[in-house]
Design brief:
2 copies of one chain form a homodimer.
Chain A (H helix, E strand, L loop, with lengths): L10 H6 L1 H19 L7 H12 L3 E2 H7 L4 H13 L3 E6 L2 E9 L1 H22 L4 H17 L10 H4 L8
Antiparallel strand pairs in A: 1-3, 2-3
Chain A binds a DNA duplex through helix 2, helix 3, helix 5 and strand 3.
DNA sequence: CATAGATTGTAAGTATACTGTCAATTAACA
DNA sequence: TGTTAATTGACAGTATACTTACAATCTATG
């Protein structure tokens, strides 16, 4: 019994923990994205917002936050920045004075077209160190896990529910 | 040729992209961690810092940032918060007036012992929706990918290099 | 139609995460 | 030894991410 006063855990256990690997991978992914897209001055979240608004023109902020699984409170400032860059427009909804509808501007659509090759390079680089079969396996498992854990992280609405009155005109 | 003015990408492509899945999984992981550990008022990063200081007593802030792959600038405020909670102590290094050495306090060691079961519950919950074999496969691939991508995200020092003069007394 | 409850956007407050910059200090070198 | 270079910690500034709170507005109900 030679000392050993505090043996609860070591940093090596942290390195192998899912939470640590998820955080580290997210750091790396953002870093690669920003590097590939530095010519465009768009963050990953701003990019996702642009794509979502492009796919669902006239969406409002609350539904947008559900569609891109993005915190509702923070989204306000993201929208502000995109509006300041003139990539999106906010228009009041005629039938509901609370809601502001979001639309891509011409330059928003243009930047989206231009940035896509860089984004695809970034996505490819994130997985590049793995063999193709392993990339597929990892993405498959991760997509599955995110889907099954979807309820764990609080999002105001499920993406599908959020869009019932959009796009399909009903 | 019926219209189709902007077909560059849709939100479904974003959902399948690695960057989106990594971000979403990180959100979920943090959410689960905070839920399991809410009785302790410790964030995942603060927890990792405590473990690292416990494993490497007398580490300085720059090396700590390398050990837990944590941004050096942000670490200052993390250390401040841990110091304010009296979980760690900062002592000036005798041989180098720039450096402040970090040590766990008694209550820091105590909270670390107490929180570990909650942390382990959280880590287990993150992977719970997958079959055991899939959990193993996912963690293996992710550990591999993080390791091979380590250079992509800027960290001042590699964890191993950061510790050469610590612990082993040389 | 009046009121309670829900929804929308906004804001305040905390905590990462990153980019820069800076002064104090130490190390390297001419 | 004296100047330069590197290191350390601190700070300012931007951008997520989350919690709670709040006013304006809409909906549901009596």
């Amino acid at each position: 019994m030679p000392s050993k006063p505090l043996p609860p855990i070591t940093i090596d256990a942290v390195y192998a923990a899912p939470g640590y690997l998820f955080r580290r991978m997210q750091q790396i992914a953002v870093s690669i994205f920003m590097e590939e897209c530095k010519a465009f001055d768009l963050t990953p979240v701003q990019y996702a917002a642009l794509v979502a608004i492009h796919t669902h023109p006239g969406i409002d902020a609350t539904r947008l936050s559900a569609v891109i699984a993005f915190d509702r409170s923070t989204l306000g400032s993201v929208i502000e920045r995109l509006e300041a860059k003139a990539y999106i427009e906010r228009k009041p909804a005629p039938e509901d004075k609370r809601i502001k509808l979001l639309y891509l501007t011409k330059s928003g659509a243009a930047i989206l077209r231009e940035i896509i090759p860089a984004v695809e390079r970034a996505q490819a680089r994130m997985l590049e160190p793995l063999k193709p079969a392993d990339r597929k396996a990892l993405m498959g498992l991760l997509a599955q896990l995110v889907d099954l854990n979807n309820e764990a992280s609080r999002v105001p609405l499920r993406a599908e529910d959020a869009l019932e009155h959009l796009g399909k005109g009903g």
